[in-house]
TrEMBL record:
Entry keyword annotation includes Cell division: no
Biological process according to GO: siderophore biosynthetic process
One Gene Ontology molecular-function label: N-acyltransferase activity
Role description: Acyltransferase required for the direct transfer of medium- to long-chain fatty acyl moieties from a carrier protein (MbtL) on to the epsilon-amino group of lysine residue in the mycobactin core.
Protein name: Lysine N-acyltransferase MbtK
UniProt-annotated stretches for the region Disordered: 1-29
Gene3D superfamilies: 3.40.630.30
Record SUPFAM superfamilies: Acyl-CoA N-acyltransferases (Nat) (SSF55729)
All residue ranges annotated as the Acyltransferase MbtK/IucB-like conserved domain in the record: 46-94
Source species, domain of life: Bacteria
InterPro entries linked: Acyl_CoA_acyltransferase, Acyltransferase_MbtK/IucB-like
Pfam families membership: Acetyltransf_8
Pathway named in the protein's UniProt entry: Siderophore biosynthesis; mycobactin biosynthesis
Amino acid sequence: MTAPTTRAPDPARGLPGPGEGPLRTGTPGELLRTHTAPDGGELTLRVLDPDADLDVLHAWVSRPWARFWGLGGLTRSALRDLYAHVGSLPTHHAFLVRWDAEPVALLQTYEPAHDPVADAYVVRPGDVGAHFLLGGRGPRGTRLWDALGPLVVGFCLDDPRADRVVVEPDTANDRAHARMRTLGFEVAAPVRVGDKDALLAFLTRERARPLLDAAAAAVRR
């Protein structure tokens, strides 16, 4: 993940100030969204709790397949402090997704105008930045992204002011590239974000319509 920052946007471009963008959040552990999974199970999205969720977080970021997340070398204490800091920002938020109470994914959203990615492209009002770490496999025999796609995209575009999801995975992260294409993202260009060579991609509300329709059918809350 890219280290979060806050910065002042160019007012001439009509970009929102810190915390004024189309992002949802809440208090640590708060339930924000519940979906019915394709297998009939329950998917939930809650605000990350840096204390209660620390065991899950540390186990995930320490695994070899999470190397692109860039936090594998952190101690438990440092990881907890990092996510407590993220939770204190008005522009960056973190959430834990569970499938039938089992943790499966970490989602982070952010306001691109207040993030290093703003140096890599022209931010538009309505842009929602997202990072995604897949930590679990979900129940056997299920197509994980048939469930997670509508949940994640539906949540990112939940605010009617949100018009486009922005992602920038590492250029070497082939799994993330395949996942974003499966969800309908369009690749824009290779860019430099902080100290990372990344692949910039966008998913507009219009292109996300099938996922949003699936989310509307699955949502319980």
